Automatic annotation (TrEMBL):
The keyword Signal applies. InterPro entries: Lipid/polyisoprenoid-bd_YceI (IPR007372), TTHA0802/YceI-like_sf (IPR036761). This is Protein yceI. It holds the Pfam family YceI. Keywords: Signal.
Length: 197
């Protein structure tokens, strides 16, 4: 009887799904960037970036679709290389950084989208508004050990959002037609990750 019970227990254990092999990675801010571009005066794109951010990525090595992403961006760290414009972007006309000091992204779903590619769906919270956004991701890359013994990986992610969906409505009409600032904003993340020891 004991052998029968032991055999049944063994079968039950072997029938269970493989235990998750999840590893936590942190974004290395010094070797990563979060950039954006938006149409200006209907003629060209203006680019900028956020200089302060942090985030973690939990990668399930057995099932990548069980992975998770969380990123927080300091909105006051916006930099377009024009001080006056950056001040305007920090004002209540746009990010209103005094009231909304951070924007966040928290993933809700990860699906494979081809070799080495993923689509990561998540909630982007900006200016007090939360909307679902899908990131097109290339990576994560193969692990590599740096000279200090850390394991590193990397990924590139991009998405397009409509700023008006988040209440960033400021604009001015042009005499020749069109507006000063376009509605569609392209966001690109180039991240280098360090595996937690």
């Amino acid at each position: 009887m004991k052998r029968l019970i032991a055999s049944l227990a063994t079968v039950a254990v072997l029938s269970l799904p493989t235990l998750s092999q999840a590893a936590t990675w942190t974004i290395d801010q010094e070797h990563s960037s979060i950039a954006f571009k938006v149409r200006h005066l209907m003629v060209a794109n203006v680019k900028g970036l956020f200089e302060k951010f942090k985030g973690t990525v939990v990668i399930d090595e057995n099932d990548i679709t069980r992975s998770k992403v969380e990123v927080s961006i300091d909105t006051a760290s916006i930099n377009t290389n024009v001080a006056k414009r950056d001040e305007h972007l920090r004002s209540p006309d746009f990010f209103d950084v005094a009231k909304y000091p951070a924007m966040t992204f928290v993933s809700t779903k990860v699906v494979k989208a081809g070799t080495g590619k993923l689509k990561v769906t998540g909630d982007l919270t900006l200016h007090g508004v939360t909307r679902e956004v899908v990131l097109d991701v290339e990576g994560p890359s193969k692990e590599s050990k740096d000279p200090w013994g850390n394991l590193r990986s990397g990924a590139t992610a991009s998405a397009k959002v409509n700023r008006k969906d988040f209440g960033l409505n400021w604009n001015k009409a042009l005499e020749t037609g069109g507006v000063v600032v376009g509605d569609e904003v392209t966001i690109t993340l180039e991240v280098e990750l360090i595996k937690a020891k």
